[in-house]
User: Fold these one by one.
Assistant:
Number 1:
Amino acid sequence: MATRKPALTTAGVRAAWGGHCLCATATPFRFWNGSTINMDPRTHGALEAMDSIMDQYHYAPTPPDIGGCVCRAITGGSLLSLHAFCAWDCNWQANPYFTYPAPRAGHCDMPVAMTDAICALTTRSDAPVWGWGGNYTSIKDYMHFEVVCTPADLASGIVGGTMSKQEQLLWFIKAGKEAQHFPFLRFGDSGAAVKTAQKMLGLPEPLSGHFGVGTKNKVAALQAFCKIRHPHAHAGMTINHTTWQWLIFNTVTKGRR
Ligand SMILES: [Zn+2]
């Protein structure tokens, strides 16, 4: 596992997202309650992950108090605000911006557990996804969420996030290509490839590297779950190309890489 990347600074985000306003190519993102904001399409996966958390808390981003991409300068400065790239504001009447330190209680209607969960989201490349203005150290901007990683980090996917069908299909095709590099394995085999399979199957460490009964049972369960066709008597006895493909795909989509 790579070490957790730090959140990018404002200057870092601006540089990573290209430095010029992206609103002209922003597309609508629809929240669980049907409201929409326009945002760069590369942020939509991050928004989806945030939206599913908001949905769990029945927290509704409600127009007209929400705003996506805006080509504007930072407050009191001339550089573009992160709102020109990857920040949005949520329910600004209930979560106002302050020019002085203001306590959360009475000034923010978002549940603590919800904003904590949003700020805990990470990409598969192990970068934090969202920064929240309510966590600014002195002045609070409770309405404000900003992406704090690069577009490449977002493109790696969100851990535990929902993937679109199209995204899943692309990963599945990718997994199929990768599966070509793994050998056909049979019950009784030993070696590095067996160990790799055992790791992907989630078998406990230390891994034996031997395709025994424990491994066979796990493979059989995977094949049944993923509806991988095989002669019934041979359930779990071999790891063929299709089984490798599912193993790799599951590992990617669970963010265990
Ligand atoms: Zn903002």
Note: Helices lie at 10-16, 44-56, 112-119, 151-155, 165-179, 192-200, 213-225, 241-253.
Number 2:
Amino acid sequence: MSSNLIKLGRREFFKNTGALGALGMATVVLGSTACGKKEPSKCDDVSSLNPADKKLRESQDYEDHTSHADQTCLGCTQYVAGAEGQCGTCKVIKGPIHPKGWCKLWVKKT
Ligand code: SF4
């Protein structure tokens, strides 16, 4: 009985929401894939940077794990993703960049 209610609910959902419902389901699938992606533990080795690049990184308050939950490097237009489990890079801030990092230059990716 309850599985019939679930099937009916899903059918009604698509019937009533059409393309918007399909888009929502695609978002759920893509979102769960992204959540399952392995991330680097830290991206803080700046030993190869010159003093000016280190200073810029510090002056813009770059941090590996930000408290700005809605403004991570992953969602920034300047972020360039690395391989799975590896640090990414940034078009502005030199050195390894964590997908969950942040700095004061954050700009929403469009
Ligand atoms: S500009 Fe800042 S927030 Fe954006 S990717 Fe670079 S380090 Fe991250």
Note: Residues 1-6, 13-34 have pLDDT under 50 and may be disordered.
